[in-house]
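Hello again,

I reread your note about wanting to compare the complex against the isolated chains. To keep things tidy I'm splitting this into two emails, and this first one only covers the full assembly. Below are the input lines as submitted, including protein chains and any nucleic acid or small-molecule components. They are followed by the predicted structure of everything together. The single-chain runs will come separately.
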Amino acid sequence: MRLKAEHIEHFYAQEHILHDINLEIESSCITAIVGESGSGKTTLLAILSSLLRASSGSVHYDDISLEAIKNIDEFRKKNIGFVFQFHYLIDYLNIEENITLNALDATKSSALLKALGIEHLASRYSDEVSGGERQRAAIARALINDPTFVFADEPTGNLDTKNAIGVFELFKEFKKTGFVVATHDKKIIDYADTIIEMEDGFVKNIYTQ
Amino acid sequence: MVTPIKALRKNRLKTMLIFISMVVSICAIFLISAIANGVVTMYSTMLKTDGDIIVTQKGISDTFFSDINRSLGLKIEKIENVKKVNTLILGASPVNNLPIVGIYGVSKNRFENYRLIRGKYPDLHEVMVGEKINNILQTPKTVTISKKEFKVSGVYKSDIGFEDGGVVIGLEDASSIFHKSASLFLVTLDDINKQDISAQINALDDGIEAKTTDEFIDNYNQFKIIKISSDVISFLAFLMGILGIVSMMSMVVNDRKVEFGIMRSLGFSSRAIIIKLITETLIVAILAYLCAIALSYLILDAIGHMEKFQGYINGDITPSLAISVFFISIIMATLGSLLPAIWASRVDPMSLILQGGAR
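Full-complex prediction:
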């Protein structure tokens, strides 16, 4: 699946956040959106992932425009996963229940937990595991429905170097899924297939490695 | 089902506050309705005993104000298929140190309706007292009604609270206390068309009104006033319950914004979130209902045993009342949680990203 953004403009109040963004992102690869704070990378991530509607322009998943999708919740459930800076695990559910919260097939959770190395934490609660383990659980939750794309906003923002590298390595392991990562973290450069550099709401550079 | 219960357990304090607010509201509805029901049931049972037709003064709103000529009873007795005519004078008066007690002046042929547990039926200047009032007055030998002293001839027991907490007296004495000939006739018929006999009784005197007992009870103004008052107070309790749920659920939703944002980002529909929150409230509502019905039984039982109420307040939780209040509780929970649930379903997942600090 290919994700295509055309002429994306976005305003927040009177502020022009994004300027004529045009890009294409392939699934099955890691795309990093990098830039300084205020460069517009998170807003772009939100627009690409259907969480935010652009002031103008369009986003297409293959030939389907997000605007034309009648049931965006169902589309999100089947095609899109999210990983946030904070793990945002629901504290009254254990790790497994968090992962299967909106799973199309809850039986996949065991294999996924194993693949992420947290199968022994299935029955633990978020306050009983480490920060790195929480983020792994959040990644598992994003991956449970085999989405085409996982959008991650500063996924390593709260992790130490070791855990941060662990997260990027995990992204590399799930080859079928495209990861779109908005981050300050320079370490992403070693893992990303495509890097989109943002500056003051403009795409400054797109390069593939 | 497990997830809503876990969510409720996680937010224990607020769940408990919602639960208490619902228990209080449901309990209030139960008590108000049960007590109103009890009053209506007690009075209508009293009238229905040995009465197919009730004859009162025409156009009166309350049997206490009814004044009819006792001699009409003899004419009614002569109508074909009339089996028995009981004459009653209903009144209320201070008795000894009790500020108000129901006084039942009855014709001798009605004495047998009262189950004597001690002594004998009253003669002139004598009374028999209900068991409840006998206990409250500590087995008095005499009682004073309207500054007149009467000898207590016996004690009776009645399942009707008004009667058990009242005094029965002969018609002559009642007439001199309340200055009226009679309040009403209770007419017992052979198995025959009641409407036809009512018409014959009505034809005897322009100043009287004969109705079948059921007709009378259905149209009795006092019952209507009691019912409307209880419905209005119950409705206010219902509204208070809804307001309690709305305010607490709004706080719950505010506390759980992140959770709903996550759910939205994971593809939960607005409807799914609304259903989740309403389900949580319904679980609390069902538990609150069970607790409220048990509490109401306890309170009504305690009121029934309180001497100062003289047995006049007898709550009656009928199966139909219990079922109605159950549905009212469900509606209360649904309406109360609907607005906060809609609010929760509209939590923007973008707020999760912005909370992360980036842009």
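For quick reference: Chain A has six helices and ten strands.

B.
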